[in-house]
Protein 1
Amino acid sequence: SIKHLPLTLIVAATPKHGIGKNGVLPWPMLKKEMAYFARVTKRVPMPKDTGSVQSDAWKQANLEGMRQNAVIMGRKTWESIPPKFRPLKDRTNVVVSSQDRTKLQGVTDDVVVARSIEKGLEALGEWVRVGKGKPVGRAFVIGGESIYRAALEMQQTKAVLLTRIQKEYECDTFFPDLLEGPATAWQKTSKAELEEYVGEELPELPLMEAVNGEEISYELQLLERP
Ligand code: FOL
């Protein structure tokens, strides 16, 4: 059931785990990195081919755009997305807020609003059940700090798609520390496993992007826990 849907965190962070500054991303716009975020959060995975009729039917449903991934975010992350890109297209947007939906900026009737991630998943299930939304493919948690923290405490959070920005920027919002150190259960996978997970081939790492004549490099990683 949807309540137990695996959750994937997707995040870009500096070496000190900074993720935000003054309500937006701390670094200048990294076009290709943002394009990676958009592609990966939109792509609905195809199940392994078992040669079964059921699998073929599933595949067909996918090709017809029957499924759509969900992006789950906190209210501040919702507000940080430029209005022209909000709700994030081709994804079911779920906004977590203690405020009533009428008080949230730019929330259209195709956006699910809930008071917690768990309630968001329940509301998403209901949304699909009553035919307002497409069946859910993957569910991504896209931030910010408090939502990442809550998601990391959930058993169903098994994967983190982490972009390690190699340069430090001043930040006032951080990704929880839990990922590193000898005691952590989180393990970086191989590049092949990352490619399998995101469904695309990736160039050799680190990636580089020129912004205002400055080269910013970053590494794409997949972390998993048992
Ligand atoms: N994860 C990664 N890897 N990179 C990020 O930049 C990132 N950002 C957030 C969460 N996880 C991330 C939250 N912040 C948009 C803006 C801010 C944002 C997330 C998304 C946004 O406007 N996205 C559009 C693409 C816009 C464009 O093409 O310029 C989208 O359709 O996804």
Protein 2
Amino acid sequence: SVEASIPEPQREAWLKHQTSPFKDKDGFEREVVRHVETTLARSLYNCDESAAYAACALAFRDRLILEWNRTQQRQTFADSKRVYYLSLEFLMGRALDNAMLNVGQKDLAKAGLAELGFRIEDVIQQEHDAALGNGGLGRLAACFLDSLASLNYPAWGYGLRYRYGIFKQEIIDGYQVEVPDYWLDFNPWEFPRHDVTVDIQFYGHVVKSTDESGKTVCRWEGGETVKAVAYDVPIPGYDTPTTNNLRLWSSKAASGEFDFQKFNSGDYESSVADQQRAETISAVLYPNDNLDRGKELRLKQQYFWVAASLYDIVRRFKKSKRPWKEFPDKVAIQLNDTHPTLAIVELQRILVDLEGLEWDEAWNIVVNTFGYTNHTVLPEALEKWSVPLIQHLLPRHLQIIYDVNLFFLQSVERQFPNNRDLLREVSIIEESQPKMVRMAHLAIVGSHKVNGVAELHSDLIKTTIFKDFVEIFGPDKFTNVTNGITPRRWLHQANPRLSELIASKTGGKGFLTDLTLLSKLELYVDDKEFRKEWAEIKYANKVRLAKHIKATTGVTVSPSALFDVQVKRIHEYKRQQMNIFGAIHRYLTLKAMTPEERQKQLPRVSIFGGKAAPGYWMAKQIIHLINNVGAVVNNDKDIGDLLKVVFLEDYNVSKAEMIIPASDISEHISTAGTEASGTSNMKFVLNGGLIIGTCDGANIEITREIGENNIFLFGNLAEDVEELRHAHLYGQHTIDADLARVFDEIERGTFGNPQDFAGMVSAVRDHGDYYLVSDDFHSYLETHALVDEAYRDQEQWLTKCITSVARMGFFSSDRCINEYAEGIWNIEPLVVDRDKETAAPK
Ligand code: F58
């Protein structure tokens, strides 16, 4: 048992004084007060909300640590296979609310805080979001951590501890302004492990020699070293003691501090500069969403993180004294997109150069260890690194990449002789000027499974960008795992009243761990009381959002209007421009009506939110236009409540938790074939909102589950896109009359200086309309008219919402993680026997 690891003579004393977590309200209050007085060194007489948050977080943190230690011991003792999820992004959001709910102590904390004079909602709001990610990919990683722990899988996340997460967005005069997000002032959720460090090497050169047996050995020498320091974050599972670990690496100068020798000899500046250069590596998250910019510092980040993580994983494995060939029986590593692909090369280097394995034996281990998830088909997002850059920064890795490529191409040549085109297409090295390393090709060659994130997307990668690899490796290597979301955060936490109502009809909270139980709701679609309560909850959520809109934008919106929401990163492929063109069209249509006609129209609030990458000029134009349209429409007396257009500043995870439950209809309107999956679509439907969307990503599977009567689909299909694009460029490209009318109005200056929006207009009208806005606009407007019509029939609408929620069981990230566990990682849950506190496989 675990206890046996304590030496006999001391065991009794240790066990006697083991810390036990608080059990009741009194115990919780005692912990809060103790933390205020001692940990925070504050007087009880001036404890404000932020101190109350800190103390409450510390009280829960103590609980998590205890379970976290036990979980790690249990997993080590059971010697179970672990999965390591390598992601450059973890978009965690707030931790306190989640921790309270997952350990099942929120009610107790609420009562305790009330006795101490605080409202729990206000205390929760004090927490700064942990925003170490850009968008969907980063949030998916966070949902996966929640599911892995909740399902008792032995799993660790590995990432970077950025000092600055994604920037804070301010809107000033209608423009996006970026403000640094320094989030580490007070972060009780991380534990620095100053004793867990790894030296990471950069630059230098490779020395070749021959050993006694005549074998060539390579050693990477020289260059500079940077220290990686581990920071651990506990990840509590829901309704289980399992508390997994997220390990984030922070960079420091190898000497720890600045170089004293240089310092003492008077070279102050360079001694401090070295230190700062080292710390720069983990300083800031790159704020691009679906764009690869190939910056040296980014490659440094990637290698720093990958090398530290692998060193850690290998160190753990070596403790078990098992032979190397068993490595894949104990370790699965999942690559969240190509950003950690160097891990493949690094593991090969460790095995061959440092551990002395033969190339083929090592490569076999590598391939059986890794799995690769692709999240995009957009060409501009596919990572490539220049050969000279890798040569400079990681000389030995470049050699290994060349060897991997050589052996791969040789096998392709044997399989498909005399096919030079094929070799050129699949080569890991692109023969451009300069040569480039194609990271996706390396990831495919070095993994045993490659998956896309929704059915359409997985089919697309098999038939387009990775087509040749399917020929070479066979179809079994390529698979689909449709994304999912954690119902704990995205229903229970974000929408507590709806969660409670659902629990009351489905036999308790079981649906939170088996989301298919939602299907029981279909029995109550006609239940009057139930429907009434459902509608009240939606209304209350809209009231809450209306208050936020008023407080942050000054615009008054009516909670009885239809709330139409598009919140996500701003990108041309996601087509926020089409949405705002649609809003302008609505405005013009309303303006053209007589007051009597207007009376009959349905009031709408068009709600936008999302960040533009700081260097993405067109995305910033889109934000600017949305704000300018709002300024005109919201102040037009003819229009009143019939149309409001608002842009919500600084969209992030905690804002999503408030916005999503308040939506009537949300927009997922990407050009068909461009959005790999989308995950907010799932969150909106799960919260009783309907969606308008294209046949893209997970929208297709959502339709299959909830039924096509419950979704508003429109637009061209993925299979038509290529032809349409070709027609724009080489045939005639006619702009729909309604869209032309919108462009006229922009060009007349109704929404500010037309020059400011000339790029947006001409991209559609004069430059090929790559994202097919003109092709889909008509059907988009028609479908919005259907939305209006449907919303007028509130009873029917409600039926659609309830039915949809009942059919959303498939989209839990628990289902998704179980698919990875079985189909890719080959890992089993480690269930906990509380009484014995020993581990037994299920
Ligand atoms: C997103 N990708 C997809 N990438 O766009 C979305 O359809 C999908 O649902 C989601 O992944 C989860 O699978 C995405 O968010 C990034 O933000 C990368 C950040 C680093 C640079 C390249 C893009």
